[in-house]
Each structure stands twice: as C-alpha cells, then as structure tokens.
Amino acid sequence: xxxxxxxxxxxxxxxxxxxxxxxxxxxxxxxxxxxxxxxxxxxxxxxxxxxxxxxxxxxxxxxxxxxxxxxxxxxxxxxxxxxxxxxxxxxxxxxxxxxxxxxxxxxxxxxxxxxxxxxxxxxxxxxxxxxxxxxxxxxxxxxxxxxxxxxxxxxxxxxxxxxxxxxxxxxxxxxxxxxxxxxxxxxxxxxxxxxxx
Length: 197
Fold this sequence. Notes:
This protein has helices at 7-10, 14-21, 109-116, 128-134, and strands spanning 25-29, 35-46, 73-78, 82-89, 96-107, 152-155, 165-168, 182-185. The protein is of the alpha+beta class. A hairpin with a 6-residue loop joins strand 4 and strand 5 (96-107).
C-alpha cells in the first residue's frame, strides 16, 4: 500500500490540484473485499465561479459534499444513469472539485471487467461513468474521506512531469466551453475518447 495524499494536499484550487492528480492512484476496496486500483490519466477542474460547475449557484442537497472539506469525494448521478467521481478541493465552503475522467487499470482487472461487462482493458475506465462503474462508486460513497476511509482513497503514485500533460477545453459542457481545465496524460491509450479536442 502506498502513501495516501494528505488533507493539505487537496486544500488548493481545482486548477492547481487537477494536473497534480495525473499519475496518482485511486484505490477502492470493493464490497467483496477485492482491491482495485487505477492510475489517473485524465481530469477536469471546476471552480465555484465557473458556470459549468455544480457549485455555481451555491450548495444544494445534491452538491453539499462539493463544499468541503477538501480530500472528500463528491459523487453525482448524470442522466439518471451514470455516476461521476470528483475530488473535493479548496477550503471548506469554497465549492471546487476535480472530475476524474479516466484511469489506467492497475489491479483488480477481473472485478472491473465483471462490473463493466466488457473485456478490453482500454475500455474499463476510459470515461467518467466507466471509471465509476468499474470501481463500484455510486452515491453511497458521496462525501467519503479520501484521507481516512478504508473503502476508497488516493495514493501518491508517480505524478506526471509537466511535459507529459496536455491541456484542453473540457468535454461535454455547454457553458464555460473554452476554459482550458481538462488535463490529460499526453498520448495516453487509457484516456476517454474525447472528440473534437
């Protein structure tokens, strides 16, 4: 088991934390005890003054986890079907988070294949909904403490050097479209199939 990232590490703005998450390991103990691990290869940052952010209009019952403390999960459901996994950043009450868009499977491949219903490794975690499904992350884990929880956490891994990070606009947003807050490992075969970027 690697060293976990600390609470202080998360207590920065989302655009600062997002590129620093690349290369880190998201680890999950599944209900049956299986350990699954992915290396983060693609993320997006969201700040409270950002019209594309769930925090833009202030806290709601759905978004309360996004407002702190840092180092917790914010998990939401989109289209009534798919879950998305976010890492809360910044100080308590601030409302910033980083969406984990894709990861490279490192451990627990068989469990992830079963959870996803697909065999190809490059399809297991290549998108936010796929990643959440592979790791069995749903709303029941919303608010989980990534620093102290035994079900899900983040380990230091090997951060990417800046020359291995590609910066683009975000995917699938209707407002704040040109904001360059998507960070992805350059030429990663594990990243989501983001078109037009």
